[in-house]
Specification:
- The complex is a heterodimer.
- By secondary structure, chain A is α/β, with parallel strands linked by helices.
- Chain A is built from 15 helices and 15 strands.
- In chain A, the strands form 3 sheets. In chain A, strands 1, 2, 5, 6, 7, 8, 9, 10, 11, 14 and 15 form an 11-stranded mixed sheet that branches. Chain A has a two-stranded antiparallel sheet with strand order 3-4.
- In chain A, a hairpin with a 2-residue loop joins β1 and β2.
- Chain B has 5 helices and no strands.
- Chain B is mainly alpha-helical.
- In chain B, α1 packs across α5.
- Classes of the chains: A alpha/beta, B mainly alpha.
- The interface between A and B is small, with 13 and 10 residues.
Chain lengths: 409, 84
C-alpha cells in the first residue's frame, strides 16, 4: 500500500481568504463569528454566523466565470488554486489522467437554490436562469476544479454533511493508496448561509444564541456554559500525492496522511454514539501504525452543542484509554464556525499546521470547565508544543463518523 | 383549558412515540418515554401551532418531562394572555 503525502493547502474561511489568514486567526485566538452581513438577520432568532468576510467574486473570477458558480464552488476554486500553487503542481497530459478530485459538501449550491425558490414561490417568476442546475448540483465544486486544472482521473463529490470533507480527503487518500490515482485535489466547500437554510437550522434548536450581544463569544466548545453551534462557510482543499511521486519531484512534503477510517453509529439520526466513533479512531490509528500514546493533538469535532462535546469526551477516552489525559484537544469551530461540508478540510489544515509549526490552536470562549468534559481542551490561548502526530474527528448527522490521522513528514 | 393542555400534550407524545396514553403521566420523564431532543423539537413545533405561541430555545431545553412541558406551555399562554 502506498503512502500519501500532503503537498499543498488552500483555505477560505471566516478568518479570511488564504491559509495564512486562517492560521494567523487561529493562533491569534480570533473568532470569525459575527453578525450576518449578507442579508438582514434582524427577523431571525439566530443572527450570527461565521461568514467569509469581504469575499469579492470579481477579485477571483470574471463575470462569465462567476455566472456559472454558486458561492460554494467559488470558495472551492479559490482554495484549490492556493493549494495547487503551494504544491507547485505541474502535470503532463499523462499525469493529468491519473489526477482526480474529491470534494465534500453538505448542501452544494444552496444559496443559488434558495434564490431560485424565492423567485418561483415568492415572486411568481417561472423562467429561472439556465445555469441554475449547474450551480446548485452538489458536484459543482468538484467538477469545476477538475475542469479548471484539466484533471482527468476520478472526480467525486461526497455529501456526508459535517463529515463530507473528511470522507472526501480520506477516500482520495485511499485511491492513491490503491494506485487508482497519483494526485488527488481533496477537501470540502460549503456556503449554507441563506435565509431558508438558516430557518431550517433554527428549528432544530441546536444553534447558539448571541452571547452578551457579542457574536464572537457565542460558540463555546467543551465549556460548561456552551449553548450550541454556529453555522459557518468556506472551503478547505489539500493536494494529496503518492509519497514516492512527491519525494521524486522534490516538492516539500507538508505531512503524511497516515490514516483514515469511516464508521457508522447505525442508531440515532442526530445524536452521536460512542462505540462507532471510538472504533473509527482505533481503525484509523491502526492504519497509521500509531498507538494512542503517539498522538499529541486531537482536533475535535467540537460543535459546542451540549450533546456532542460530552459524548466526544467519552469517545476520546474510550479510544485513547489512559493516553487521553495527555492529549491536547481543541475545537477550532469557535474560530471558523461549523462550516458543514468544509469543516473537516479546514480542520485538517489546522491539524497539519499544528504539526508543522509546533503550535496547537486553542478552543476559544472556554469560560467554565464541565465535569463531563474533563480533558485538556487548550483553553483560549494557543500552545507551543511539539506535535509528532495528530488526529481530526468528524461526526455527522446520520451517525456518520470519519477520522483522519496525520503524521509529521 | 388546563385539562385541555395536559390532554393535548399527553395524547401527542403517546401518538408520536406509539405509547398507550394511559402510561403517559405528568411525572413521566422524557428519558423514560424515549423522547430525545429531536423529538422535543418536533413536539414543540406542533404545540406552537396548536396554541399560537413561540417556545424559546432556552425554555425548550428545560422541558424534560411531561409535567415540565405542560407547565411551560401554561406559562407562555398566560404571558400571551396578559399581553393581549
Amino acid at each position: 500500500m502506498r503512502r500519501v503525502a500532503v503537498t499543498g493547502l488552500g483555505a477560505v474561511s471566516a478568518l479570511g481568504v488564504g491559509v495564512q489568514a486562517f492560521w494567523d486567526g487561529l493562533v491569534g485566538g480570533r473568532s470569525g463569528i459575527r453578525r450576518i452581513a449578507r442579508f438582514d438577520p434582524s427577523a431571525y432568532l439566530v443572527q450570527a454566523a461565521a461568514e467569509v468576510p469581504e469575499f469579492e467574486p470579481s477579485d477571483h473570477f470574471d463575470a462569465a466565470q462567476s455566472d456559472l458558480l454558486d458561492r460554494f464552488a467559488q470558495f472551492a476554486l479559490v482554495a484549490a488554486g492556493e493549494a495547487c500553487r503551494g504544491a507547485g503542481l505541474e502535470l503532463t497530459d499523462a499525469e493529468r489522467s491519473r489526477a482526480g478530485v474529491a470534494i465534500g459538501s453538505g448542501m452544494g449550491g444552496v444559496v443559488t437554490q434558495d434564490d431560485r425558490y424565492h423567485k418561483l414561490y415568492a415572486e411568481g417568476i417561472t423562467r429561472l436562469h439556465p445555469f441554475s442546475i449547474p450551480r446548485i448540483m452538489n458536484n459543482a465544486a468538484a467538477a469545476q476544479v477538475s475542469m479548471r486544472w484539466g484533471l482527468g482521473g476520478p472526480t467525486l463529490s461526497l455529501a456526508t454533511a459535517c463529515a463530507a470533507a473528511a470522507h472526501a480527503i480520506g477516500e482520495a487518500a485511499e485511491m492513491i493508496r490503491a494506485d487508482r490515482a497519483d494526485v488527488m485535489i481533496a477537501g470540502g466547500a460549503e456556503a449554507p448561509i441563506a435565509p431558508g437554510v438558516l430557518r431550517c437550522w433554527e428549528a432544530m434548536r441546536v444553534l447558539a444564541p448571541a452571547s452578551d450581544g457579542d457574536p464572537s463569544r457565542a460558540c463555546r466548545p467543551f465549556s460548561r456554559d456552551r449553548l450550541g453551534m454556529v453555522l459557518g462557510e468556506g472551503a478547505g482543499i489539500v493536494v494529496l500525492e503518492s509519497w514516492d511521486r512527491a519525494a521524486a519531484r522534490g516538492t516539500p512534503i507538508l505531512a503524511e496522511l497516515a490514516g483514515y477510517a469511516a464508521t457508522s453509529d447505525a442508531a440515532h439520526l442526530t445524536q452521536p454514539g460512542v462505540e462507532a466513533p471510538a472504533r473509527a479512531l482505533t481503525i484509523a490509528l491502526d492504519q497509521a501504525r500509531l498507538a494512542p500514546s503517539d498522538i499529541d493533538y486531537v482536533n475535535a469535532h467540537g460543535t459546542a452543542t451540549r450533546l456532542n462535546d460530552s459524548t466526544e469526551t467519552a469517545i476520546i477516552k474510550r479510544a485513547f484509554g489512559p493516553a487521553a489525559r495527555r492529549l491536547a484537544i481543541s475545537s477550532t469551530k469557535a474560530a471558523h464556525g461549523h462550516a458543514m461540508g468544509a469543516s473537516a478540510a479546514l480542520e485538517l489544515i489546522a491539524t497539519v499546521l499544528a504539526i508543522r509549526k509546533g503550535v496547537v490552536p486553542p478552543t476559544l470562549n472556554y469560560t467554565q470547565p464541565d465535569p463531563e468534559c474533563d480533558l485538556d481542551y487548550v483553553p483560549n490561548n494557543a500552545r507551543e508544543m511539539p506535535v509528532r502526530a495528530a488526529v481530526s474527528n468528524s461526526f455527522a448527522f446520520g451517525g456518520l463518523n470519519a477520522v483522519l490521522v496525520v503524521r509529521a513528514a | 383549558m388546563a385539562d385541555d393542555i395536559e390532554r393535548k400534550v399527553i395524547d401527542l407524545i403517546a401518538h408520536k412515540k406509539k405509547l398507550d396514553p394511559a402510561t403517559v403521566t405528568l411525572d413521566s420523564t422524557f428519558e423514560r418515554l424515549g423522547v430525545d431532543s429531536l423529538d422535543t423539537a418536533d413536539l414543540l413545533f406542533t404545540f406552537e401551532d396548536d396554541f399560537g405561541i413561540v417556545v424559546p430555545d432556552e425554555v425548550a431545553t428545560s422541558m424534560r418531562s411531561v409535567g415540565q412541558v405542560v407547565d411551560g406551555l401554561r406559562r407562555l399562554l398566560s404571558t400571551r394572555a396578559e399581553a393581549d
